[in-house]
# Entry
Amino acid sequence: MAEPIRKIIIAGGGTAGWMSAAALKAGLGQTVDILLIESEEIATVGVGEATIPTMRVFNEHIGVNEAEFIRATEATFKLGVEFRNWGHKGHRYFHPFGDYGATHEGLAAHQIWRRLRAAGDDTPLEAYSLATQIAYANRFFPPNPDPRSPMHDYSYAFHFDASLYAKFLRGHCEARGVKRRNARITGVNQRSTDGYIESLTLDDGSVEAADFFVDCTGFRGLLIESALKAGYTDWSDYLPVDRAWAIPTAKTDDLSPYTRSTAHTAGWQWRVPLQHRTGNGHVYSSRFMDDETARTVLLDNLDAAPLKDPMLIRFVTGHRNTFWDKNCICVGLSSGFLEPLESTSINFIQLGIIRLLELFPAREIDPFLRREYNSRTLDAYEKVRDFIILHYCTNTRDEALWRYCAEMPIPDDLAYKMELYRRRGEVILRKCDHFAEPSWVSIYNGQGVIPEAYDPLADRVPLDTLRELMQKRREGIQRVVAQLPSHAEFIARHCPSDNFMKAGV
# Structure
């Protein structure tokens, strides 16, 4: 029998490091020793203050109580993303975590909506989304798990302070046996025979050895790139934004249960409301706007007083050529970067470490496991890349960045998906897609990609039947929304942080 892995070293802390430690400890138990090495002198980049619903699954997997997590991380709830000025100036739409109604006689809700539109009904698609209507009313209540309930067909994620989440997970992990060392890594020691990593040298001269290594050292990729030379694929031609100014502001009375993305001349601005503050940032392309202008754009579009000076973050959109090389995988920013437009950074961390558990090796690593891990991870990156490109390539704005994005060649698979949707509203989902059919429909519709025709099966159902069906859904949504507490009221009752209570509702 193959000799098992006995010790794993996680290089780097932050959100990626401590999420990796928590998931590995939950999955491997006491069979493997886990050591995390981080330096308190090295600042971390917090780009993941907004998430998608899979975050809830991760917290459940590692045994974290949701209310405790929310209080500890100053978290709020997220029902989706509002996009302002993206398709064109003055326009807004919503990407909800939920659908637009149940299928009827095999017909998707958006196909029924298209049939009614063709018959002269101008009701917007968002009127049929429960998540959207709850969000725009600034209300919140968890969905009912009973599929018969009118409160069933939506989900939620979180906004949270990533640094506080790392601190919270550290306590969680150490209580379960994860070891930690506060030190800088000064050397990566490899076997002369095959280049496998044997140990890490630390700044005090000590050496820590392990059987397997997880690189969570951020953009620099200390293990995967500096030592193993994995290489990097640059996707800037598809996604040219490469910098971001980030700044926290004071909390506002408008505690919206959604992330806001507002398009500007050469990029877009995020707004993420937390219990104790609001996260803001301007993501832009240095090819189309200089740093000082971008900084000014951010400061001129804040809705509350800044709490700090803006911080500049530089990045290159893309991914490592190899995510698992020899006896090392990279997780988080060390594996690649896609702008936080759809809040996928945290999910990539989650998927990376869960995928390792699914393909967990012996000490003598089967190269087929590495190959499969790399294939799945690349596929996931490409699918999210294409989903983000969809937001850009369908715009009708006049500025240089936006015209570039509208005219640039796009990946073949995305072009095929878009063409099929244009022809008949068909949504194609691939194996590693992060987002389900309603998400694609929301972006297509919001960006003005309108199908030329609808599913002809919709003509089998009498028009009056479809009208009645969708009217009942709208009326049901209105009744539900009217009964719910505000987002702030729900947090105050169930999971307030100390700072939230001090500030009042």
About this structure: The chain has 16 helices and 21 strands. Residues 7-49+161-234+317-365 form a domain with the FAD/NAD(P)-binding domain fold (CATH 3.50.50.60). The mean pLDDT is 95.
